[in-house]
Amino acid sequence: xxxxxxxxxxxxxxxxxxxxxxxxxxxxxxxxxxxxxxxxxxxxxxxxxxxxxxxxxxxxxxxxxxxxxxxxxxxxxxxxxxxxxxxxxxxxxxxxxxxxxxxxxxxxxxxxxxxxxxxxxxxxxxxxxxxxxxxxxxxxxxxxxxxxxxxxxxxxxxxxxxxxxxxxxxxxxxxxxxxxxxxxxxxxxxxxxxxxxxxxxxxxxxxxxxxxxxxxxxxxxxxxxxxxxxxxxxxxxxxxxxxxxxxxxxxxxxxxxxxxxxxxxxxxxxxxxxxxxxxxxxxxxxxxxxxxxxxxxxxxxxxxxxxxxxxx
Length: 312
Ligand SMILES: O=C1NC(=O)NC(C(=O)O)N1
What we know:
It contains nine helices and 15 strands. About 35% of the residues lie in helices and about 20% in strands. The protein is globular, with a radius of gyration of 18 Å. Strands 3-15-14-9-8-7-6 form a seven-stranded parallel beta sheet. The chain has helices at about 25-35, 75-90, 105-115, 145-155, 170-180, 225-240, 255-265, 275-280, 280-295; strands at about 5, 10, 15-20, 60, 65-70, 100, 125-130, 160-165, 190, 195-200, 200-205, 210, 215-220, 245-250, 270. The chain binds oxonic acid. Pathway: Pyrimidine metabolism; UMP biosynthesis via de novo pathway.
């Protein structure tokens, strides 16, 4: 029984990793991810320079998940690039990690990727097209022309493995239209989904919202979003060229949730809200629970079950 997962020409011990933004803001958090049972990890979406992000409170755990409006706080690209390059030198034999960027404009996205292209980074880059929490900035991937324009310009110069982090879509016309755009490019993967944007959670006791930015509107994560996450993983798995892998993110709390994402076609699996709540020990639990389910069902490798969801 093995959870070994091939991705981007490398083999990872298991498909689990953090979702960008969770447990990856500081080198201490990244070290904890690196020393956990997670198969890999990804850095917080980086901008050109340090960003303070939105005013607090900006993250709130709720019974069925989380709501956040962080606003892309991060230490700036050099901080994370130095970390992954140092790690590459000290762990020359370990499978490469993932690096997330989120520019505030087309130009900034191109500059961030140029910096990575010109570096010795040997891992996979994730272009975040889906942060819902920067006031005044729409989620890029809800602008189909903008998405096409950025990817066209990126692939004129970017030669390293690149994935895109997508927001959830809720309409077959949008699945089709976005898949048609993404299939034009040599992407390594598509990551579905980012948080479900602009939800609202109310503290009935005080009759007040629970986060400060945007009058309480924020991205939803956790159990709330699993059905939408699974649908987006499945929709893109069935529409994209097989060379474009899917990373499944959204609502993974148990080994069963992980199994469901794999059935829909996911290759790597990212954990956000439940990692925030439980800490990095969650990865030991997820590994154990996924193995138990696979054992019970008679699967010896993940390749045996990936994408094998049955329709009626
Ligand atoms: O892409 C993002 N998704 C989120 O849900 N939150 C963060 C953020 O606000 O920084 N970014």
